[in-house]
Amino acid sequence: MEKIIINGGKPLYGTIEVGGMKNSSLPILFGTILVSGDCVIENLPPIDDVFAALSILKAMGAKVRMLDSTTVEINTDNIVCGSAPYEQARHMRGSYYIAGAELGRFGRTHVALPGGCDFGQRPIDQHVKGFEKLGADVHVENGYINAESSGVLTGASVYMDVVSVGATINIILAAVLADGVTVIDNAAREPHIVDLANFLNACGADIAGAGTDVIRIKGVSGLKGVNYGVIPDMIEAGTYMIAAAATGGKLTVANVIPKHLESVTAKLLEMGAVVEENDTSVVVSAPYPLKPVNVKTQPYPGFPTDMNPQMCVLLCLADGVSMMREGVWDNRFRYVKELVRMGADITVEPKVAIVRGKTPFKGASVKAVDLRAGAAVVIAGLAAEGTTEIGDIYHIERGYENIVEKLRAVGADIEKRIVNEPAQSNVI
Ligand code: EPU
């Protein structure tokens, strides 16, 4: 089994370059289904979720050509509707954007229900509601999302009962080529939604209001291929900001949009860390001791749920009691038991973790239970005394580009190694 091995206790110093954002790369890649001609997408993160998305597009009949490690040329002119391979699509979350994109282009869809990290229930009722409002007849059955329409969808008003990134994106994808105007009320405001809208508008779409909670999409008759660069990944950036503070080092986190990091920066400042903002970088250092704070995760521009586990590691290092309240997912605290193995003192009530610092983390054998949980145990390992062995690192590799190499370059003692697990005994 491949593991990440960290000998902790070394402060990080230097510069880390952040890659393109995973959560806008996926809708943009599947958004090319709506576009005629060649699209060149730049600043893609070379991560497993992106490779999986490209592999699905290829299997559907798209021409996919890597121009370099972060740039791809895609032509979806000849793709076949409903042909996304079930096994590949069911292993990632972003594959449900095929549903919106196929509906937008073909007026029908047939795609596996998505997978992704396990945070308890991950319903898709708001996606279904949006597709139905636009005139599709939707059935979720036998592991598939199936939808049919008269051929072309019709613009409509959609009020979202919950703020959902995925449903907002899927409704945009379904609506750009629809007849008439679609208005999404109570839309998600994440930067990746603005990024997708900018890409589609560059291709000829007419989308206004992305980044606010009311998005208006006027259907157009077609989209043409463009060159487009994905924005930097604010969660990757936030993860390295916290790694700097947790190890008591000083990191320049470069190629970022500081505005997207404001909620993380605000909490770091409240804890006593030093954060200097430049045009496209932030410099983070944290002279100890860190102060305890309370955090609540919320949709953007609130503190991101995808930074909950990493931030919780920093709360463990603060001198006092902090609270991490989860405001998005039902069950985001599966990582806590891994941190407890490393010495953390955390009690979880259904949606709140009560974190008693100041933890002297000790290296242990732990697992990445999901993507951001994996980032959290990496940070805890960097801050810990002794050796930490992290298993199930495929979760981390779905979303972090070259995390081992990037951290090693700023002074971490970290490597990836094949570790043979001892055979399981049958004796109970
Ligand atoms: N929800 C519903 N009904 C729906 C859709 C969502 O009730 O139809 C609820 C969810 O149960 C949740 C809340 O709405 O309580 C927010 O879910 P959302 O739809 O916004 O999440 P998502 O689109 O499935 C994306 C990211 C996640 C990130 C969330 C929240 C992708 C591929 N995934 O998921 O990212 O946690 O938004 O920001 O974009 C990650 O990158 O590690 C990750 C898990």
Characterization of this structure:
- With 428 residues, the protein is an alpha+beta fold.
- The protein is built from 14 helices and 23 strands.
- The protein has helices at residues 22-31, 48-59, 86-89, 97-106, 125-133, 165-175, 191-202, 234-247, 262-270, 308-317, 336-341, 371-383, 394-397, 403-408; strands at 2-7, 13-17, 38-42, 63-68, 71-75, 109-112, 137-141, 144-148, 157-159, 181-185, 206-208, 214-218, 227-229, 250-254, 274-277, 281-285, 294-296, 321-325, 346-349, 352-356, 365-367, 387-391, 413-418.
- The strands form six sheets. It has a four-stranded mixed sheet.
- Helix 12 links the parallel strand 21 (365-367) and strand 22.
- Helix 1 runs parallel beside helix 7 (191-202).
- The longest helix has 14 residues, at 234-247.
- It is globular, with a radius of gyration of 22 Å.
- The chain starts with a strand and ends in a 10-residue tail after the last strand.
- The model has no long low-confidence stretch (mean pLDDT 95).
- It binds uridine-diphosphate-2(N-acetylglucosaminyl) butyric acid (EPU).
- Uridine-diphosphate-2(N-acetylglucosaminyl) butyric acid is lined by residues 22-23, 26, 93-94, 117, 121-127, 162, 164-167, 188, 305-306, 328-329, 371-372, 399.
